[in-house]
Amino acid sequence: MAHPAHVSVVRSLYKRILLLHRFLPIDLRALGDQYVKDEFRRNKSASGEDVTRFMTEWQPICICCQCIVSVVVKWKQIYIYKRCYQILSSLKG
């Protein structure tokens, strides 16, 4: 059985990845969610060494997803701001 500290860290990573998937298009989200759920299920009863290896593989993936999501969210904010400015400018003119 996995150490409780490992369980907590792995569960936190799992939830964070699924949360990041909310920003994906619906079809990619479903595919990504299923893949992540399958991977984490397969490693549910992993030993301490295996948990360390698993986390070493998945933490960079999570960080990469966070970076992509932050860029996309920022891009959307900029787009919305520019669009609002265009609409307000057209109303004034």
The geometry reads as elongated
Strand fraction:
under 5%
Structural class: mainly alpha
What's the number of structural domains?
A: 1
| Stretches with pLDDT under 50, minimum 5 residues | none
User: Helical amount among residues, as a percent range?
Assistant: over 70%
Helical element count? 3
Order of helices and strands: HHH
First CA to last CA: what distance? 69 Å
Mean of the pLDDT scores? 86
The radius of gyration over CA amounts to 19 Å
- Count all strands and give the number: 0
Sheet of most strands = none
Protein model, in words:
The protein has 93 residues and is mainly alpha-helical. The chain is built from 3 helices and no strands. The protein has helices at 4-21, 26-42, 48-92. The chain is elongated and about 70 Å long. The model has no long low-confidence stretch (mean pLDDT 86).
Supply the key terms:
single chain; 93 residues; mainly alpha; 3 helices
Task: Summarize this structure briefly.
By secondary structure, this protein is mostly helical. The chain has three helices and no strands.
Give the arrangement of secondary structure elements.
Layout: H1 4-21, H2 26-42, H3 48-92
Helix pairs in contact: 1-2, 1-3
